[in-house]
Design a protein that fits this description.
7-stranded mixed β-sheet; binds pyridoxal-5'-phosphate; alpha/beta; Aspartate Aminotransferase, domain 2; 5-stranded mixed β-sheet; disordered N terminus; Aspartate Aminotransferase, domain 1; 14 helices; single chain
């Protein structure tokens, strides 16, 4: 059941769980955009995988649009079109990994430029900004993205990029993307990049909220089957697209056509998978919140989450990623808990069909300094879950038997 409600003068459909109702036509677009069988002579309904590294030319410099596999590839183009459409964007570019996207975006900057980044990012992005950027003489300041005044105060005349994730990893803080974009865009020439990996275009479309570039680790939900490492950037501005496309070819950070085929296939079930991730993770969040061995649960879909209202206004739902603090908060206890799990696999990464559990302090966020981690609240008792698509009763039973060992 959906009801119409008015927020900020805009009519929006609200679903029964309080989040914005699902984007209209999403599943149809995911299945059909860029996939028209009339594009290839075989009329294959499933887009063919084109592995060819080179393409025949009718005369010198008379090619069909495809010349060399690094520059353009038909399987990559099919995927890029579909990805762009799902984010309500005009242009999509696929890269060899999520970090490949980040690297390509950073090559748009030059020595002396400045980046403002959210202080609670994917561990590897944090590492890239702290090491590579600094080596390239690009300055980076980290700020709490949920505090608009701090973001504003961090902007300098040399600022060229503002980088954020929402919800943040692994603390699930929700950043008001629209407010940050509006503030940053008061100053001309600063690009806002939103890493939308955690929610996907099904649950959140940052370009509609004012972002300049949406980036993904497609490795996670967008592919959804934990068998590909890939990334993408989506944007509306043609000049920006041309620059980044040039960089895609120039730096050579391109994905394999076979991987493009797999991610394109993954998109066909994205809406179904995300609905199930959402249901499973909310049921688990509620279970954990009521458990005596758990101190605190971080899940934007819970009314106890500090930015629950913002999450509901900004997104169409929350995925399977959530975190929680064990009561004990010690390494011994969290290790025992993680080693006792039987259905959840102890592993980094997220967004696949399978449920995963990990310890950010020693795993995904181990490259961050101890001081930075403790300032943020990434303690030895903080567990991050990627809730998969299994039967939720089995997942809850698994967490329960493991908690009971403590
Ligand atoms: C995994 C991840 C990345 C990095 O992507 P790779 O595909 O592993 O290179 C970036 N951001 C977020 C939020 C991620 O989860």
């Amino acid at each position: 059941m959906s009801t119409l409600e008015s927020t900020n003068g805009l009519e929006q459909i609200v679903a029964a769980d309080g989040f914005r109702a699902q984007p209209k036509g999403f599943a149809t677009k995911a299945i059909h955009v860029g996939q028209d069988p009339e594009q290839w002579t075989s009329m294959a309904v499933v887009p063919p995988i084109t592995m060819s590294a080179t393409f025949k030319q009718r005369g010198p410099a008379q090619h069909s649009g495809y010349e060399y596999g690094r520059t353009e590839n038909p399987s990559r183009n099919v995927l890029e079109k579909c990805l762009a459409c799902l984010d309500n964007g005009k242009y999509g570019l696929a890269f060899a990994s999520g970090h490949g996207v980040a690297t390509a975006i950073i090559t748009l900057l030059k020595a002396g430029d400045h980046i403002v980044a959210s202080d609670n990012l994917y561990g590897g992005t944090n590492r890239l900004l702290r090491n590579f950027c600094v080596d390239m003489n690009i300055a980076v300041d980290f700020v709490n993205g949920t505090d608009l005044e701090k973001v504003k105060a961090a902007l300098k005349p040399s600022t060229k990029l503002v980088w954020m994730e929402s919800p943040t990893n692994p603390l699930m803080k929700v950043i008001d993307i629209e407010a940050v974009c509006a503030e940053v865009h008061r100053v001309a020439g600063i690009l806002v990049v939103v890493d939308n990996t955690f929610l996907t275009s099904y649950f959140q479309r940052p370009l509609d909220l004012g972002a300049d570039i949406v980036m993904y680790s497609l490795t996670k939900y967008m592919n959804g089957h934990s068998d590909v490492v890939m990334g993408a950037a989506i944007m509306n501005d043609e000049a920006l697209y041309k620059k980044l496309k040039f960089r895609q070819n120039e730096t050579g950070i391109v994905p394999s056509p076979f991987d493009c085929y797999l991610v394109n296939r993954g998109l066909k079930t994205l809406s179904l998978r995300m609905e199930r991730h959402k249901l499973n993770s909310l049921a688990i969040a509620k279970f954990l919140e009521g458990h005596p061995k758990v101190k605190r649960v971080l899940h934007p879909g819970l009314p106890s989450h500090p930015q629950h209202e913002l999450a509901k206004r900004q997104s169409n739902g929350h995925s399977g990623i959530m975190s929680f603090y064990l009561n004990g908060d010690g390494l011994e206890e969290s290790t025992l808990f993680l080693k006792s799990l039987k259905v959840f696999t102890l592993a980094v990464s997220l967004g696949g069909f399978e449920s995963l559990a990990e310890l950010p302090a020693l795993m995904s966020h181990s490259s961050e300094s101890v001081e930075h981690r403790s300032a943020l609240g990434i303690t030895d008792g903080l567990i991050r879950l990627s809730v998969g698509l299994e039967d939720v009763d089995d997942l809850i039973a698994d967490l329960e038997q493991s908690l009971n060992k403590l």
